[in-house]
């Protein structure tokens, strides 16, 4: 991506105070080329916002696709996470998991929707995450299908608790999920131990298909790293936003 046009973009920095989390949360808000506050835009909410922008280069990918590939202009909101709290907020058994989901629904969405012209209907709202970020994104959709029906999972940590949560659903035909997993993710080291994310995603895929999920499932060579995920973002963004 050597074209200088791709790097001329607007990224707003926001800080919001959360009563629910008893904490502040930094946001990065990407505004697309030709942004007009009188227009309205679909929106992508990204967990691990700093990583999505710095390592995933999501703003650069989106700009190139909008300028050159007829991608629908989109606003992208990155929600930064404090690494010390990441597992507690993103993991289903984390002691801040329920609080984080409540923050997302009751504070984050109203904050963004008041300040930016994002579309508020469920078909124009996407939630995205990597690893445990993919986990909490899927749980947000399962718990709030009236708000989220489109989910991007980059090597989601879809372990036992998430599989059990999916099993509770009778019909997931409303859910549109893009799952990416690397073939070299069979021994992923985490702060809780080493896990076979590849097998976990394969098992979860079968459960989701049984529930009639609209599923785009991609397996290819790759490790549990942004170096793998960032190269797939073009295709993933196009899946949801290209006409």
Account of the 3D structure:
- Keywords: Hydrolase.
- This is Alpha/beta hydrolase-fold protein.
- One of its GO terms (molecular function) is hydrolase activity.
- InterPro entries: AB_hydrolase_fold, Esterase-like, Mycobacterial_A85_antigen.
- It comes from Chengkuizengella axinellae.
- This protein is of the alpha/beta class and 243 residues long.
- The protein has a single domain (4-241), classed as Alpha/Beta hydrolase fold, catalytic domain (Rossmann fold), CATH 3.40.50.1820.
- It is built from 9 helices and 10 strands.
- The protein has helices spanning 49-54, 58-68, 86-90, 97-115, 132-143, 160-167, 197-210, 226-229, 233-241; strands at 10-18, 23-31, 43-46, 75-79, 125-130, 150-154, 176-182, 188-190, 193-195, 214-220.
- The strands form 2 sheets. Strands 1-2-4-3-5-6-7-10 form an 8-stranded mixed beta sheet, sandwiched between helices. Strands 8-9 form a two-stranded antiparallel ribbon.
- Strand 6, helix 6 (160-167) and strand 7 form a beta-alpha-beta unit.
- The longest helix is centred in the middle third of the chain and has 19 residues, at 97-115.
- The radius of gyration is 17 Å and the shape is globular.
- The two termini are 23 Å apart.
- The relative contact order is 0.14.
- The model has no long low-confidence stretch (mean pLDDT 96).
């Amino acid at each position: 991506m050597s074209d200088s046009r791709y790097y001329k973009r607007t990224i707003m920095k926001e800080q919001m105070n959360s009563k629910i989390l008893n904490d502040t949360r930094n946001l990065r808000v990407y505004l697309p080329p030709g942004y007009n506050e009188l227009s309205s835009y679909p929106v992508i909410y990204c967990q691990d916002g700093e990583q999505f922008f710095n390592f995933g280069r999501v703003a650069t990918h989106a700009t190139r696709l909008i300028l050159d590939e007829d991608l629908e202009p989109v606003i992208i909101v990155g929600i930064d996470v404090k690494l010390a709290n990441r597992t507690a907020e993103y993991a289903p058994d984390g002691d801040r998991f329920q609080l984080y989901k409540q923050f997302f629904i009751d504070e984050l969405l109203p904050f963004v929707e008041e300040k930016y012209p994002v579309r508020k209907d469920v078909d124009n709202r996407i939630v995205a995450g990597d690893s445990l970020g993919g986990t909490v994104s899927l749980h947000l959709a399962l718990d709030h299908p009236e708000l989220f029906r489109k989910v991007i999972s980059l090597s989601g940590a879809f372990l036992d608790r998430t599989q059990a949560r999916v099993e509770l659903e009778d019909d997931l035909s409303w859910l549109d999920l893009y799952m990416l997993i690397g073939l070299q993710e069979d021994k992923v080291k985490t702060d809780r131990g080493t896990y076979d994310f590849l097998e976990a995603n394969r098992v979860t895929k079968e459960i989701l298909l049984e529930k009639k999920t609209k599923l785009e499932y991609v397996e290819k060579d790759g490790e549990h790293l942004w170096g793998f995920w960032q190269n797939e973002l073009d295709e993933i963004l196009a899946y949801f936003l290209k006409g």
